[in-house]
Design brief:
The protein is mostly helical. The protein has eleven helices and no strands.
Amino acid sequence: MNSKRADKLATGVFVGIAAIIISILVALFSYILVKGVPYITWEFLTTPSSAVRAGSGIRDQLFNSFYILVITMIITVPLGVGGGIYMAEYAKPGKVTNTIRSCIEVLASLPSIVIGMFGLLVFVNITGWGYTIIGGALALTVFNLPVMVRVSEDAIRSVPRELKEASLALGITNWHTVKTVLIPGAFPSILTGAILASGRVFGEAAALLFTAGLSTPRLNYMNWNPFSPTSPLNLFRPAETLAVHIWSVNTQGLIPDVDEKAAGASAVLIISVLIFNLGARFLGSYIHKKITATK
């Protein structure tokens, strides 16, 4: 009887904790969306920003956020997947492997502000690039790479060992087994991890504050020459992202409609991050069903 009461008590405690967490998330999201969604208009999304003029938008910041996200993931995913494959399949147990894993864990636990200061020192000052998109993308790569390595390693290890053993028994090389058996089997989990990492990149501010900068030059969206100073594709120009812009307008407070603009930009940011997370679950589940032929 006592064990049943203890079980019910433990169940009630865990249910209560889950309810508290869900309530906090729902309240936070609801507050941001209720305050910000009324200010999200097509003009708001497509109008350039201004530091002093009311009625400006977030066009450049929104583009910068997606552009830095794409550049970051182009660098992060191959390195992260390669590191995960090495740790799962090629790294031999020992002091070297343990040291590498410890370094990955330490790097994953570093605050983003520390990554930003590192990026300021290396990608801004030492390289002489100044505040640039590529500097911000490289800083975010350092920020996200440990997560991508761990996700890839866990995904590779989760593939049934019988599949690998069967492939090797047929005389197929280890690399070909990794390429044709393990990676396809782990792909849904890797993809889910990559999309969730994208959400972290999209909402990051501290690291980009010190590497990509607080300003955006006047851009010509008809100019797609990546070497032109006015091209939006120029990797060596400063780029204020949406998260940094929210921090900037709230701290500077020079815009007459600063509250409305901050609320609208925050709602756009939250909606984008939610889309990333929900997209990760849906796409990962869909691809997993396709690969495993399950319904």
